[in-house]
């Protein structure tokens, strides 16, 4: 394929991919009456910031941001620690039942959350966690993908490196801290990014467990607003835009870690 | 078991105040287990316990929290004769057949397109990746904005072009199309990212050798690159299949299973039965378990096929 043609195809593909986001931004700044009258368009005759300011007047938007940030950060810290340790053990330590443990972890991918939602809710309720952020954080900390990525990464770390550290007199834990952790910076970056994004965007489980509008995370708030605004896409898109801008920025800035993490995971 | 592992795992005697362990073997076991333990506890508590509980519920008539009463195979019997359930099975199948090959295939196509040097390549890639960071809720709401029949953007454009409007929301087939389109938008970037990561490791020398041997660009892709990417493709197919089987958010927000039952999926049906107006926990759990078993079977078949090919 000649270069100019490839370039042209790339431009077209990107237009298609960016279009939904452009539509979101434009409608977020389109006056309500224009949408209700002539329908939403990609270039309105008038612009407004009323949709955004109206949101802040009517709803605890900052609170929603704080909730989401808190929940996502807690999950990230817990999830990276737990999955990193497990991934390392599954790749580098030999112990009886290791294969079985890996199989159990992977098989969690196949359990649909919705299939176990009712008993899961009852369990969390009995633990007294309903209305607490822990109800959202704890069940989502262990992820098959996180363990899998960590394991694949550590499989590619040569045993000799760890042995050398041991021979130089490192204790087991200091070898882990001084040799393994610095090595796994790209891995930790991708795991953290994945965990943070997943939790920032998670919808169904927070919807069930966080019943109070003051506790809502952003996706739950969006679903709540869908009911409040009905066909008023202006306000809805304003909130959608606000909710995804921070993550889009983080993602674009850290993108190379993401790609690097996957290329070292050995899923070639 | 090699001596290397032992050296790595067993603590040196000077490091511990405890009496030296009688056998190295007894030390080796705990460290590995200690490191996987937090993970296993979380999985056990929040996944396996509810899973077993769901299995118990599927044999119960349970309409509220607290204990239910046994109803034997009633739920399963109802399931077999339930037209909506079979419709949900069919819809999930159609959705899966549409989304998995397209997500993986387009992901591969775009990865190949954007792998070689090209002005603005990094920018193009970033644009396609962006939906990865967009939540399914935002994706679904934007999908509604695009495909709303009355005020939506797509119909607005079609109207302006004089092509007439499409009944995206009131006609079942079109509603399915909108759900599939938004799913693809949110997934293709991930496929492309994983493929691009894998493409960085393709052996350049083999490619050059193929070129010297007279293989054209298409033949090189087909006979060198695609076989090289097989493990990646396998990973993407498995994960996309699971995602498609478990599709919920986009359907729930965009169509809520409608119009009628034309986009009802297994998971949205399980949710409606368990948490919706019906509040039939036992039946909801039964539908969810069917999905679980289906996922297990399909994944096991794939693993078996993949293994046979590798041998």
Automatic annotation (TrEMBL), chain A:
ABC transmembrane type-1 domain: from which residue to which, for each copy?
Answer: 65-254
Q: Name one Pfam family in it.
A: BPD_transp_1
Where found in the cell? Cell membrane
- The reply on keyword DNA-binding is no
Instruction: Extract the SUPFAM superfamilies matched here.
Output: MetI-like
Q: Which InterPro entries match?
A: MetI-like, MetI-like_sf
- Keywords for this protein: Cell membrane, Membrane, Transmembrane, Transmembrane helix, Transport
Coiled-coil parts of chain: none
What membrane topology is given?
Answer: Multi-pass membrane protein
Q: What is its main location?
A: membrane
Q: Which residues cross the membrane?
A: 7-29, 69-91, 100-121, 127-150, 187-208, 233-254
Q: Which family does it belong to?
A: Belongs to the binding-protein-dependent transport system permease family.
- Return the protein name: Carbohydrate ABC transporter permease
UniProtKB/TrEMBL annotation, chain B:
Q: Localized where?
A: Cell membrane
Source organism superkingdom: Bacteria
Q: Where is this region: Disordered?
A: 1-23
Q: Does the keyword Membrane apply?
A: yes
Q: Which residues form the ABC transmembrane type-1 domain?
A: 89-302
PROSITE patterns to which the protein is assigned, alphabetical: ABC_TM1
Can you tell me which family this protein belongs to?
A: Belongs to the binding-protein-dependent transport system permease family.
Protein name in UniProt: Sugar ABC transporter permease
């Amino acid at each position: 394929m000649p270069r100019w043609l490839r370039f042209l195809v790339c431009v077209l593909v990107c237009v298609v991919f960016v279009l939904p986001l452009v539509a979101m931004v434009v409608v977020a700044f389109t006056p309500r009456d224009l949408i209700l009258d002539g329908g939403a368009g990609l270039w309105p005759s008038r612009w407004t910031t009323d949709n955004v300011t109206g949101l802040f007047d009517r709803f605890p938007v900052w609170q929603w941001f704080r909730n989401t940030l808190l929940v996502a950060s807690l999950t990230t810290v817990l999830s990276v620690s737990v999955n990193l340790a497990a991934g390392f053990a599954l790749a580098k330590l030999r112990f009886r039942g290791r294969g079985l443990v890996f199989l159990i972890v992977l098989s969690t991918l196949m359990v649909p959350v919705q299939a176990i939602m009712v008993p899961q809710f009852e369990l969390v309720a009995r633990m007294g966690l309903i209305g607490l952020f822990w109800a959202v954080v704890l069940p989502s900390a262990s992820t098959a993908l996180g363990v899998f990525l960590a394991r694949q990464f550590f499989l590619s770390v040569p045993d000799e490196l760890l042995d050398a550290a041991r021979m130089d007199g490192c204790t087991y834990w200091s070898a882990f801290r001084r040799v393994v952790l610095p090595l796994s910076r790209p891995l930790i970056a991708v795991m953290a990014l994945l965990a943070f994004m997943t939790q920032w965007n998670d919808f169904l489980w927070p919807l069930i467990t966080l019943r109070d509008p003051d506790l809502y995370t952003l996706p739950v708030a969006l679903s709540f607003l869908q009911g409040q605004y009905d066909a008023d896409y202006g306000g809805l898109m304003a909130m959608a835009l606000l909710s995804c801008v921070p993550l889009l920025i983080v993602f674009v800035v850290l993108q190379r870690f993401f790609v690097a993490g996957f290329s070292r995971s050995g899923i070639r | 078991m090699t001596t290397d592992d032992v050296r790595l795992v067993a603590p040196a005697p000077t490091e511990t105040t405890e009496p030296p362990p009688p056998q190295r073997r007894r030390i080796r076991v705990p460290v590995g287990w200690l490191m996987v333990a937090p993970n296993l506890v979380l999985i056990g508590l929040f996944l396996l316990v509810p899973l077993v509980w769901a299995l118990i519920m599927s044999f119960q008539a349970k309409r509220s929290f607290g204990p239910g009463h046994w109803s034997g195979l009633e739920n399963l019997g109802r399931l077999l004769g339930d037209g909506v359930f079979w419709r949900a099975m069919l819809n999930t199948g159609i959705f899966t057949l549409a989304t998995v090959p397209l997500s993986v295939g387009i992901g591969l196509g775009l990865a190949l397109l954007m792998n070689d040097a090209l002005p603005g390549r990094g920018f193009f890639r970033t644009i396609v990746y962006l939906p990865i960071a967009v939540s399914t809720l935002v994706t679904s709401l934007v999908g509604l904005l695009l495909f709303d029949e009355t005020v939506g953007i797509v119909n607005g454009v079609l109207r302006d072009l004089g092509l007439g409007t499409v009944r995206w929301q009131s006609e079942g087939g079109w509603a399915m199309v909108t759900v599939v389109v938004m799913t693809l938008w949110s997934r293709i970037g991930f496929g492309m990212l994983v493929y691009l990561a894998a493409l960085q490791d393709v052996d350049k020398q083999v490619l050059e050798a193929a070129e010297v041997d007279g293989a054209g660009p298409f033949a090189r892709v087909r006979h060198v690159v695609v076989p090289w990417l097989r493990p990646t493709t396998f990973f993407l197919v498995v994960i996309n299949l699971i995602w498609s089987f478990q599709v919920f958010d986009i359907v729930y927000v965009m169509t809520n299973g409608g119009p009628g039952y034309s986009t009802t999926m297994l998971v949205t049906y399980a949710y409606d039965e368990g948490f919706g107006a019906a509040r039939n926990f036992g039946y909801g759990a039964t539908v969810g378990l069917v999905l679980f078993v289906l996922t297990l079977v399909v994944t096991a078949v794939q693993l078996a096929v993949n293994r046979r090919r590798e041998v």
